[in-house]
Design brief:
Radius of gyration: 18 Å
CATH topology: Trna Endonuclease, Chain: A, domain 1
Distance between the termini: 50 Å
Helix content: 25-40%
Oligomer: single chain
Largest sheet: 5 strands, mixed
Strand order of the largest sheet: 1-2-3-7-8
Number of helices: 5
Number of strands: 9
Structural class: alpha+beta
Order of helices and strands: HHHEEEEEEEHEEH
Shape: globular
Amino acid sequence: MSRHPLEEKWNAPAADILTAIEHGFRAQVDVKGKLAEYYLFKKLVALEERGVVKNVQWPDRDGKPDFLVDVGSQTLRVECKNARTPKTQKNRSAEVAVAHRVELQRTRNSKDGTPTRGYRADEFDLLAACLFNISGRWEFLYVVTRDLQRRKNLPEYLEIMQWVPLQPTGVWVDDLEAALKKAASQRTGHET
């Protein structure tokens, strides 16, 4: 059995790599984020194989959207974020989950120190919220960026914390193909 390229690169067996990740909270958060992107990538590639989209790109670079996808004549920018583990509050009879949210913030500010962690509303077209932290499954809900909440004092920026439902409702859908088509139609101004 051949070794994974990362085992070769780091000269370490997979079990040791996984054990190191297990002992690092930040490493686990990073790996879960990358796994969410990987599972979304597989969904996008499946749509590409069916001819629904073209030219799926996963740039994996700071300052770039997570994915670029051609839908019709549009190149859409897709961001993938993990929904946060729900916070709970205690009531008299039990603990109750009160909020499922996704955080729309970059991991670091710009190199010159300016606060650039927040996203402008025009930086991506579609948000894929991975529900793993809530459901334990690598499933997604999608929302067109135009339907996300904006900051009251800076409306060109998106609110950092966005509410995420547990199932499709309102502007949130679980059909990636439909979400991409809606995002493309909104960019052209011809919503279907």
